[in-house]
Predict the structure.
Amino acid sequence: MSSRSIATLAFLLAPAIAFAQSGPAQRRLDEISARGRALAAYQRAAWTASRQLLAQNPDPWKVSRYVAYHADSGWVVAFGRLCATRDTFYVSYIAVPAAVNGQRVDSLFEFETFAEPGADTDFLVRAARAMDNAVMAHGHTARAYTAAAIPGDGGNWFVYLMPSADAANVWPLGDDVRYRFSADGERLLEARPMHVGMVPDGRGSALRDEPEDSDVFHVLAQRPSAPELVVTLHHRYVVAADGSIRFAQGKESIVGAAR
């Protein structure tokens, strides 16, 4: 094809490209970005608070499950256990972002300890139930996984199962799944594998023609965060360092790995 033909084709396609980056398509990318940001904040709070709590040598029986949630003070983590009848979550510790120079931070937590575990029969128990059901649906795995339950529209739950981070807080990408459960955490509504397999550098293959929530998570989990290029069958996307997503145009210079 001649250079003139290529230029003509690019001109004809320009309106379609512009349309793809606005309206419904961009709104969908913004929704993925919002879920990925919430997942990153959840996992960062849970990972950081868990490490700090383990240093206190808690009774393992009292902290068999944690649930993170967003509050006025930031992402709070409740540590406890789900009872055998699965209708009560007993809270033994609550981790709240510490105040440093008058500002709440996500790198240090203050703990409230309950001598007698507090009983929750609403939000925490529903989240814990959804995570337990997701783990059972996922089945046995050779490696450790971490679960995160985030409220979705209509009171339903998005539950993410992802390969756990290592000691250096490096999260491998691949073999991750997003489940959607009913508001009570009991009924599985959707199972969505996000990436299949893990290649040697820890990056799984895309299953769909759009970024996944965990693509945003992995950008934000890096320290420092750096933009990455996500390549699917028909499209290329840039996940920026702040977790926002846009269609990539042409050959873009991206700090980070393409996948």
Notes: The chain has a mean pLDDT of 86. Residues 21-223 form one domain.
